[in-house]
Design a protein that fits this description.
Pfam families: MarR. Keywords: DNA-binding, Transcription, Transcription regulation. 63% of the residues lie in helices and 7% in strands. The chain has a domain at 42-131: Arc Repressor Mutant, subunit A (Orthogonal Bundle), CATH 1.10.10.10. The protein is mainly alpha-helical. It has helices at 7-14, 24-44, 52-62, 67-74, 78-90, 112-116, 118-132, 138-159, and strands at 65-66, 94-98, 106-110. The two termini are 32 Å apart. The chain contains 8 helices and 3 strands.
Length: 164
């Protein structure tokens, strides 16, 4: 089955968890897929693809970075980072220039056009958070965040795949 394009399709797609669709793995998969589709839709409205928001936030928070450092900060493969930066550069949101100390290293910076996008990216992040936590009290949101942090640490440690 093809990857879902809308939140409704994502819910339908992940409903096929078998007899135990309330199992933790199924619920995690459904929530993650729903989040991804929701975020993708909102980012598309401002001309971004999923993940590009994380790269921009990393640059806004940490300043210009090498491509390798940026990939490490957001936890993705360097080849994926290169492809993402090519798209961001074509859109005019970032620029890459040789490092003054080592011309083989590219330094990535946001452009004025990229910096102007920050309020919209922050709005999207806030909207995703609002929609994800609708119906939860602030205490429940805090507890959920804490519990998911523990689950993430457990899964990442077992998989050896992500920095926590």
């Amino acid at each position: 089955m093809a990857e879902p394009a809308t939140l409704k399709e994502a819910v339908a797609w992940t409903d096929a968890c078998g007899d135990d669709d309330t199992g933790l793995s199924c619920l995690m998969a459904q929530a993650a897929r729903g989040h991804r589709v929701l975020l993708a839709g909102l980012l598309a409205e401002i001309g971004l693809y999923p993940g590009q928001d994380r790269a921009l936030f990393a640059l806004w928070e940490n300043g210009p970075q090498s491509q390798n450092a940026l990939a490490r900060i957001i936890g993705i493969d360097v080849s994926t980072m290169t492809k993402m930066l090519q798209r961001l550069e074509r859109s005019g949101f970032v620029s890459r220039s040789p490092s003054p100390s080592n011309g083989r290293i590219s330094i990535v910076s946001t452009t004025p056009k990229g910096d102007a996008l920050r309020p919209e990216v922050e709005r999207v992040a806030a909207e995703v958070h609002r929609r994800m936590t609708r119906g939860l009290t602030p205490e429940q949101v805090e507890a959920l965040s804490s519990l998911l942090g523990v689950v993430r640490a457990n899964v990442c440690r077992e998989a050896g795949a992500c920095a926590v």
